[in-house]
Design brief:
EC number: 5.1.1.1
Number of helices: 11
Keywords: Isomerase, Pyridoxal phosphate
Strand content: 15-25%
Distance between the termini: 41 Å
Organism: Azospira inquinata
Catalytic activity: L-alanine = D-alanine
Helix content: 25-40%
Strand order of the largest sheet: 8-7-6-5-4-3-2-9
Domain Alanine racemase C-terminal: 234-358
Structural class: alpha/beta
Radius of gyration: 23 Å
Order of helices and strands: EHEHHEHEHEHEHEHEHEEEEEEEEEHHE
Number of strands: 18
Oligomer: single chain
Length: 365
């Protein structure tokens, strides 16, 4: 018999969340790249992309292998490689599978021009407007633009950037000003908005937007919940209670004895630990649900187990269902209690956790 821990992905909720993102872009006829990097944020690349293929305008991800997997699964939508290509010998594969790279260095443009590809390769030129990770700057862009002007192997050109503070008070206007100064009145295709900018900064919603976390039912904002945004949770992580222990006052539980009972305390031992992807650094008090009722984590998370408080849940016992996140327990709330973000919770779910996918067939209004 397998361990009782399991994940579940609600593809109908995913499609609903896409429709929310679509409404934010509709006023400006903005196309959407659904971001499915990191195995669709841990939700399962091919099932997620298949559920969105008839809704989205394109997909965006990082790994060439994942892009190939989508093509081999029958996905025909445009695919943007957000970090571009890493070696020149990848370029024939990009051409074969009809993939579009983001380009952030001059030598990448030179590699495309010298690759002898059978087709012109479209590119998104990445501009560094303040994130200071990837992208051309005011100092390096002119050489790239001069090269593009005479290039024969490069097809359609678009410009993109990435926002550092779309979810913070600093906002995006300072980066939009830098972007506009760099592109100098460019009237072609652009891509600026991530999830936060799409929902909160309409001035950034141009060309192609790139929604990511909102598709998976989490809020990009600390001051606004997913439910407030009209989003539905997509992933649930669930397990069961393996056994029950009774602690007397002064007794401790788990490695390091981080939790000490101050009164008679009833605890449930749950089949979930950091090897399953639950954050080891989650402190006592991190919320969970037991048979739909609120409980809390007690003590340190172990590799394969953790403990929850059953003191006020006398009906709970061996076999009781435990929700680590999902459904009525937002992943954002669990992540906040654990000092992280829902992105990390989703992406950290381990391969040993079986993940089922349900729904995804019906159209979403």
């Amino acid at each position: 018999m397998s361990r009782p821990i399991r994940g579940r992905v609600d593809l109908d909720a995913l499609r609903h969340n896409f429709s929310v993102a679509r409404r934010y872009g509709a006023a400006r006829n903005t196309r959407l790249f659904s971001v499915v990097k990191a195995n669709a944020y841990g939700h399962g690349l091919v099932p997620v992309a298949t559920a969105l293929a008839d809704l989205t305008d394109g997909f965006a991800l990082l790994e060439l292998s994942e892009a190939i997997a989508l093509r081999e699964a029958g996905i025909q939508n445009p695919i943007l490689l957000l970090e571009g290509f890493f070696r020149a010998d990848d370029l024939p594969v990009l051409a074969e599978y009809g993939l579009t790279p983001a380009v952030h260095r001059l030598d990448q443009l030179e590699a495309i021009e010298g690759a002898g590809l059978p087709v012109q390769l479209p590119v998104f030129i990445k501009l560094n407007t303040g994130m200071n990770r990837l992208g051309f700057t005011a100092a390096t862009l002119p050489a790239a633009q001069a090269f593009l002007a005479q290039a024969k192997a490069i097809g359609d050109v678009a410009y993109m950037t990435h926002f550092a503070d779309a979810d913070d008070p600093r906002g995006v206007d300072w980066q939009i000003q830098r972007f506009d100064a760099l592109v100098g009145g460019w009237r072609g295709t652009v891509s600026l908005a991530n999830s936060a900018a799409l929902l909160r900064h309409p001035q950034a919603v141009r060309g192609w937007a790139r929604p990511g976390i909102v598709l998976y039912g989490s809020s990009p904002f600390a001051d606004q919940s997913a439910a407030d945004l009209g989003l539905k949770p997509v992933m649930s992580l669930e397990s069961e209670i393996l056994t029950v222990q009774e602690l007397a006052p002064g007794e401790r539980v788990g490695y390091g004895g981080l939790f000490e009972a101050q009164a008679p305390t009833r605890i449930g031992v749950v089949a979930c630990g950091y090897a399953d992807g639950y954050p080891r650094h989650a402190p006592t008090g991190t919320p969970m649900l037991v048979d739909g009722h609120r409980s809390r984590l007690l003590g340190r998370v172990s590799m394969d187990m953790l403990c929850c408080d059953l003191t006020d849940l006398p009906q709970a016992g061996v076999g009781s269902q435990v929700t680590l996140w999902g459904g009525d327990l937002p992943a954002d709330e669990v992540a906040s209690a654990a000092g992280t973000i829902s992105y990390e919770l989703f992406c950290a779910v381990a391969p040993r956790v079986p993940m089922s996918h349900v729904g995804g067939q019906a159209d979403v209004a």
